[in-house]
Amino acid sequence: MTAFIAIQLLALTDNAYLRAAIWLAHGAVQGTTGFGFWVIGHECGHQAYFGDRFHLNNAVGLVIHSFMITPFHAWKITHATHHRFTNNAEKDTAFVPYDEPSAFWAIGESFPLIHVIPMAIYLLIGFPMYILLNYEGHEYPEFWSHFNPNAPMFRKQDRTDIIVSNVAWGVMFSILIACAVSFGLAPVLLWYGLPLLGVNAWLVCVTFLQHSDVRLGHYHEGDNFDFLKGALAAVDRTYGWPLDNMMHHITNGHVVHHIFSHMPFYHAIKATPYVKKFCGEKYYLCD
After folding, report:
1. Cα gap 183→28, rounded to integer Å
2. What does the pLDDT look like over 209-232, one tens digit per residue?
3. What is the rounded CA–CA span in Å between residue 120 and residue 114?
4. Cα angle at 246 between 243 and 248, to 5 degrees?
5. For 243-265, what is the HEC assignment?
6. Largest CB tally within 10 Å, which of 26, 99, 100, 217?
């Protein structure tokens, strides 16, 4: 529907500025919708969307994430580690907490506009950089990628799954290349690339804010870290009823999702008021 509306509007004008605005609006709306589909793939990665139907969860998750250039099994494995060790400075694999800010961020405190640079990088290409280069992931002595079956973030028994993800990713990338050859690079970038940037932007924005708050603890091995401490190191944030629904409540049901990661989102949002009441303001964080 969004694409149909965009086509109709583009046919009405030759003004370059109006056309650019239409393309950007189309990318934003489709990117938001696409992120909702990405979240369904994320639910499949937790074996939550289809209950205990292991193979169905993996098949659907693989298709959805591969369509959005995400290596499903590789991401699923490191994401599971993130859930086991959330906000553990030594073992978390995504948005690893740091004790000291970098020099770049320290300079940014005096010149806030400098933060626009890393913000743009994070939102637009942060997730691909994490997948390709392990950017902002767990630090290893050597360079590793989510595409490497021998990377230390994976076990030997994960090797086949990583290869399957790589093949599925390669198939989708080949389809995009074939479309670019047949229809031109510009249409592929506009119809597929712009919405994909929107998906990546929402993915980084939502997940970063879920684990970034001055009230959250950052844990080390000597802090008697356990699963529940990590699971409660998350913040529920609401983006308003339309967006929360489009994003399948990964936004405002995230604390429950960390405590009960096998619970599908439509039950997690129902359970949130009860968990909030049980934990109280000291342990349940929201904004």
Report:
1. 23
2. 998 888 888 888 778 899 999 999
3. 11
4. 110
5. HHHHCCCCCCCHHHHHHCCCCCH
6. 26
Q: Is the dihedral of CA 138, 143, 144, 147 positive or negative?
A: positive
Please identify which residue in the block is written with the tokens 């429950």.
256
Q: Report the C-alpha gap between 174 and 159 in whole angstroms.
A: 22
Query: Which structure tokens are listed for 88?
Result: 């553990």
CB burial of 237-267 (b: ≥16 within 10 Å; e: otherwise) equals: bebeeebbebbbbbbbbbbbbbbbbebbbee
**Residues 82, 67 contacting (CB under 8 angstroms):** no
Euclidean distance between CA atoms 29 and 213, whole angstroms: 28
DSSP-assigned beta bridge partners for residue 285: 235
Q: How far apart are CA 18 and CA 3, in angstroms?
A: 16
* Percentage of the chain lying above the pLDDT 70 cut: 97
**Res 271: pLDDT:** 96
Q: Could you tell me which residues come within 8 angstroms of residue 1 by beta carbon, excluding any fewer than 6 positions away? A: none
**Do you know the residue count of the chain?**
287
Q: Which amino acid is present at 180?
A: A
pLDDT tens digit string along 88-100? 988 888 877 766 6
Could you tell me if 246 and 36 are in contact, meaning their C-beta atoms sit under 8 angstroms apart? yes
Tokens describing residue 201: 């932007």
Cβ atoms 82, 258 nearer than 8 A = no
Q: How far is 63 from 72, CA to CA, in rounded Å? A: 8
As a whole number of angstroms, the distance between CA 25 and CA 6 comes to 9
Residues 6+ apart with CB under 8 A from 179: 187, 188, 192
Tokens 């050859």 locate to 181
Start-to-end C-alpha separation, the chain: 33
